Amino acid sequence: MQIVFATNNRNKLKEVQSLIPKDIKLLSLEDISCFEDVPETQDTIEGNAIQKAEYIKKHYGYDCFADDTGLEIEALNGEPGVYSARYAGEQRNSEDNIQKVLLNLKDTSLRRAQFKTVIALELHGSQQLFTGTCKGDITLEKKGEKGFGYDPIFKAEGYDKTFAEITLEEKNRIGHRGKAVNQLIAYLNNI
Known about the structure:
The chain is an alpha/beta fold. The protein has one domain: Alpha-Beta Complex (Maf protein), CATH 3.90.950.10. Helices cover 29% and strands 25% of the residues. It is globular and about 50 Å long.
């Protein structure tokens, strides 16, 4: 089986490639010569995942899946949520986003949050959604050099290290994207 993962994010691609079985050939957008910005204009995480998958299927004709991920912080009424990548502006800078979160939480001890990933699969003319979440807390400061995005300030429930301090294998086992990808793999293995 061959399927496109509709992302230009090399970090996401690396995470997902480490989970996908060898009998599934994973293609990137670069592999199908898609160098344009795939639209993400919906106001929900689910909506963005669906929009990206439908766009690739319609414009390139490939069976594909797309994900969208958001960090939802209780004390910020679910922000940054669907706007996680551009929380601090259209420049989509992770460091700026992290600093904005830490600034917005500086006067509260309420630091509960969750990462949420939704994968939309376009396969053989039908669409499926898979959702993975990981609950945890936002730390007071950045810790760790691994991972990407908000990983240096997110500590999963039951862990004393941030996502940026643990291995990719461990993150995939407990994390939101890993959970959603495992649901996708289980589905693909049963069709």
